[in-house]
Write a structure and sequence with these properties.
about 150 residues; two-stranded antiparallel sheet; three-stranded antiparallel beta sheet; mainly alpha; flat
Length: about 150
């Protein structure tokens, strides 16, 4: 084993182009190719996505608990303050959607390698174009599983 090779390696996360013709006219200008560049995630990004999934489940459970308290005579103001504090939305979000939204947020990149989606953008994409959402997030996860490649 030679860890110096790892330490000195020029490693690049794998990328791919994903064709999303259903998004033509939605996020692409007329005549622009309906292609998005995606990249595999780092361990930190992947686990932040998992954290978002766990947080969504916890938020739902805590919101339900506060609603139960409200039914016993506490004020609605408490529920609103609590929901804002934990980031709960009016519409429940599935844990898998929360996870894949973060995967897309980190994994869809521009030509400089910078993420282009915010979490809210990715969630809206999933709401209106669920197959594109699934296709993009699945490809990003596949690339993440490949690990980095030795660069030039």
């Amino acid at each position: 084993m030679n860890l110096k090779k790892l330490r000195n390696a020029n490693l690049k996360r794998p990328t791919a182009q994903v064709l999303v013709p259903e998004l033509a006219g939605v996020i692409f200008e007329t005549g622009e190719a309906a292609l998005l560049t995606v990249r595999g995630l780092s361990a930190n990004q992947l686990f932040l996505a998992y954290d978002a999934m766990k947080k969504t489940g916890l938020s739902a459970a805590l919101t339900d608990a506060v609603k139960a308290l409200n039914e016993k005579g506490t004020t609605d103001d408490l529920t609103d303050v609590f929901k804002q504090a934990i980031g709960a939305s009016e519409e429940p979000v599935a844990q898998e959607v929360a996870f894949r939204s973060e995967v897309i947020r980190f994994g869809v990149i521009d030509d400089k390698g910078q993420p282009v989606f915010m979490t809210t953008d990715a969630t809206k994409l999933g709401e209106h174009y669920p197959e594109s959402f699934k296709k993009l997030s699945t490809k990003i996860l596949e690339l993440s599983g490949e690990g980095s490649q030795v660069g030039e």
